[in-house]
Amino acid sequence: MKVDFSKGKKLILETQNNSVGEHTKFNYPFYTSEIKGLQGSYYSNIQRNYSVWNELKDEISQTIQDKSHSKGMIIGMTLFIEMMYWTNNQLVHADWAERLQTLIFVPLNVSERLSFIQERPYSYQSFKQLHELIQEQMKKAAKQHINN
């Protein structure tokens, strides 16, 4: 299943067991901030997500090396998408993918890069791509924070 982020489709997380093994479909709408609200400023929440990512990335790297699957990459994508919206001073809503084109402060080719990650969520290349997206977004967030 391929999700084209440029056409406004939702990501969904759903783990299914079949005869081949566990397969994860992205079926989870990333709008936790819409449900829970934010505690503090956008930038403080971005920093919190970045800290969570730094704790999570070693675990993800290990599961990829062990050729096992965990929900770490999905959590990482959630963190990134929240960071991307919060950098633009917006909450993440259920139609986040449709609104992606309206964001100003995003990494280059973000839709294509997210699609790449979604197609191969447990590959080392996807992990590195997500790591780079988060690093780039953190730089944009810091710059945006300084300028405001």
What labels describe this entry?
two-stranded antiparallel ribbon; 148 residues; disordered N terminus; 6 helices; globular
Distance between the termini: 40 Å
Q: Provide mean pLDDT, rounded.
A: 79
Q: Give the count of structural domains.
A: 1
- In N-to-C order, the SSE pattern is EEHHHHHH
Biggest sheet strand line-up:
1-2
Uncertain segments are 1-32
Q: Specify the structural class.
A: mainly alpha
Biggest sheet statistics: 2 strands, antiparallel
| DSSP summary: helix tally | 6
In angstroms, what is the radius of gyration?
15 Å
Q: Could you give the count of β-strands?
A: 2
- Coarse shape: globular
Helix content: 55-70%
Tell me the β content: 5-15%
Provide the fold topology.
Elements: E1 14-18, E2 21-25, H1 32-36, H2 42-65, H3 72-87, H4 96-99, H5 110-119, H6 124-147
Antiparallel strand pairs: 1-2
Brief rundown of the structure:
With 148 residues, the protein is mostly helical. It contains six helices and two strands; from the N terminus they run E-E-H-H-H-H-H-H.
Would you write up a description of this structure?
The chain is mainly alpha-helical and 148 residues long. The chain has one domain (5-147). Helix content is 56%, strand content 7%. It contains 6 helices and 2 strands. The chain has helices at residues 32-36, 42-65, 72-87, 96-99, 110-119, 124-147; strands spanning 14-18, 21-25. Strands 1-2 form a two-stranded antiparallel ribbon. Helix 2 (42-65) packs antiparallel against helix 6 and helix 5 runs antiparallel to helix 6. The radius of gyration is 15 Å and the shape is globular. Mean pLDDT is 79; it is low at 1-32.
